[in-house]
Amino acid sequence: MGILKYFFGLLFLLFSFQTYAQQAPVKVAVFAPVYIDSAFIDNEYKLGNNNLPKYILPGLEFYNGVMMAIDSLRAEGQSVELFFYDTKSSKEPLTSIIQKPEMKEVTLIIASFNNRSELKTLADYAAAQHIPLISATYPNDGGITHNPYFILVNSTLRTHCEELYKYIQRYYATNKMIYIRRKGTAGDVIQSVFEEQGRTTPAIPLKYKTVELTDTFSIAQLTGNLDSIQRNVVFCGSLDDNFSMRVVRTISAAKKFPCTIIGMPTWDGLQLIDDNTSGNIEIIFSTPYHFVRSDKAAQSIIQKYKMISFGRPSDMVFKGFEATYHFVHLVQLYPTSFLQHLSDKHYSLFNEFDFQPVKNRSNATITDRVENRKLYFIKKP
Length: 381
Hints:
By secondary structure, the protein is of the alpha/beta class. It has helices spanning 2-14, 36-39, 57-75, 94-97, 116-129, 157-172, 188-200, 219-223, 241-253, 271-275, 296-309, 315-333, and strands at residues 18-19, 26-32, 40-41, 44-45, 80-86, 108-111, 133-135, 150-152, 176-182, 209-213, 232-236, 259-263, 281-287, 355-359, 367-372, 376-380. The longest helix has 19 residues, at 57-75. Strand 6, helix 5 (116-129) and strand 7 form a beta-alpha-beta unit. It is 36% helix and 20% strand. The chain is built from twelve helices and 16 strands. The strands form three sheets. It has an eight-stranded mixed β-sheet with strand order 1-5-2-6-7-8-15-14, sandwiched between helices. Strands 10-9-11-12-13-16 form a six-stranded mixed β-sheet, with helices on both faces. A two-stranded antiparallel ribbon has the order 3-4.
């Protein structure tokens, strides 16, 4: 019943807006894919009390985190007026939503995207209206250029690859390194960034052997490139989870090869990574989000969420909470210079940010977007 309660609260919000203060509130528009039309016919909930499709959960959880942050801001006496919109509404497409009169009054847009076209539509609007747009969860720039109002919190694949290259240079430059790639075109982007880093780095470029494997590679095809005497560094340059996990399982089972396996940001949350207990390997991957659930702020959110929904909050709840709490505070603290203070630590909760302008490759005087380059490197076990 907790999820159903949230859905009814959400339904009300979609047809109105909540004002939490009387005097000059900061007006914030929040967008997330909650698929409200999939759950309701008019005002009647149609999915049943125990039936909630998985595709609904990320957007709904993000919304839950946003609303919990609004409650916290209100408790602190902050003035906030929130407009929430479902990016998957069939009755109100995004192109119609941005024409609403209240959209011209907002000073901040926070969004959880899962679609490139939606990202571009809203980013173009934000640029035209000079409204900062916080893309809180989507690790994709959507091909956006010439837009200093587009702020990407979840770092792009290029940024991850660049920072992983530097990380390996810093800590594993003298180790034997194997670059594993999956046969096909999907890994070309990752490999091209690595090669570009090798050409442009001011330090000594990494030396590594590239091994291309198919999905059905044999144990010998992989372990034949490993050294049993010294620790191997294996970089898995693939976004395919099944391929990546086959690499991890194969090396984990080959007990005589000590390995550090470095992988993609998509490895965060993969069950095999969490369950790894092999003594011969350590696993490292990068992420812009590191939620330590044992700290005081996280425990407060966990307990509050449990009271409301009788469940455990996912990372999307924390992302919605952090984006709303952090950036609304900064808009209030720096009303005329918000874009210059995106990395400010005054209201940091779980993660620190390092927002840097991404310059246009053809014209370095033009900012294509602003991107968070602060990454955490998670090591397991």
